[in-house]
Amino acid sequence: MGKTAWMFPGQGAQYTGMGKDFYERYACSRQIFERASDIVSLDLKKIIFEEDDRLNQTEYTQIALYTTEIAMMEVFLQKCSLPDVTLGLSLGEYSAITAAGALSFEDGCRIVRSRGIFMEQAVPNGQGGMAAVLGLRAEEAEQAVDSFSQVTVANYNCPGQVVISGECKQLEEAVNALKTAGAKRVLPLKVSGPFHSPMLFRAGISLGEELQKVTWKHCRIPYVANYHADYVSDAAKIPELLIRQVSSSVRFEQSVRRLLEDGVDTFVEIGPGKTLSGFVKKIAKDMNLEQITIEHIENNM
Fold first, then answer.
1. How far apart are CA 27 and CA 64, in angstroms?
2. CA–CA distance, 158 with 282 (Å, rounded to integer)
């Protein structure tokens, strides 16, 4: 019998109105949105459900996504049992840890809110950025950017797709090097900083101070960490992994491959959009993929 993994998307998946149908239909989901708004002293319903520029600002995006993902997960939990393992991409790792039982929703809200602020403020606007690289193997992309001291591979998404991150001038030069190496396309991303690069080191230090205030719980199921693409069950190890995650590469493809080796054949995406399902499909074509929507819950549970 195969195994199931729940996966949670990260920044970039957000859109106006995400989760509103869950809010309107399910009391448990509505309570999550309202509790989060109280915890972080923000009107998250306005930011998420109405046209609001803040939704695409890192400081607010992260808490908006975390709240939406947990609000959707709470509904799903009422209809099914826990999976064998969880994973998330960048911000989504916090939802994965919450699902795994190591982080309370209240502490998660506070930490994610702080993380968004620290990452937003880590590098002055215009000094860093990111770009998606299409059509190169990861090793080829690594070699192409190796000579640039302030550019690194930030995300290993799936075969033929990585994301680079770093200082703006070097990033522009790296784009040319990647095209010379054979990249089909290199697309600048609309982000406010060089996330998951060493330029975010100080943000990780600041985050670490906040993580010390959290009471971590025993994991009821394991999750796979972005930093090393391996299982985590010991809650004591989580803070250091989250500190490192801010300024290190997100190894999503490697995480999925680790799960495949261990018999996972069903991946359930909980959150807005289908980005992670698209990555999994490119990593392994024959997997069972599900996206959590109201229609899915009511028709299949």
1. 18
2. 6
Residue 115's identity, in one-letter code, is: R
For CA atoms 112, 116, 122, 127, give the dihedral sign: positive
Q: How far is CA 128 from CA 19, 124, 131, 166, in A?
A: 31, 8, 11, 5
* Contact between residue 187 and residue 131 where contact means Cβ atoms under 8 Å apart: yes
pLDDT digits (tens, 9 = 90+) for 287-299: 999 999 998 888 8
Per-residue pLDDT tens for 73-125? 999 999 889 999 999 999 999 999 999 999 999 999 999 999 999 999 999 88
Report how far apart, in Å, the C-alpha atoms of 167 and of each of 46, 76, 140, 179 are. Answer: 34, 41, 20, 18
3-state secondary structure of 256: helix
Which one of 37, 90, 95, 114 is the catalytic residue?
90
Strand-strand pairing, 128-134 and 161-167: antiparallel
Catalytic residue among 29, 95, 165, 196: 196
Is this structure's pTM higher than 0.90?
yes
* Cα–Cα distance list, 235 to 102, 112, 155, 247, 255 (Å): 6, 17, 24, 21, 19
Q: Would you say 197 and 128 are in contact if contact means Cβ atoms under 8 Å apart?
A: yes
The question of whether 228 is a catalytic residue gets the answer no
Position 301 pLDDT exceeds 80: no
Domains and CATH numbers, the chain: 3-122+198-300 (3.40.366.10), 128-188 (3.30.70.250)
Establish whether 90 is a catalytic residue. Answer: yes
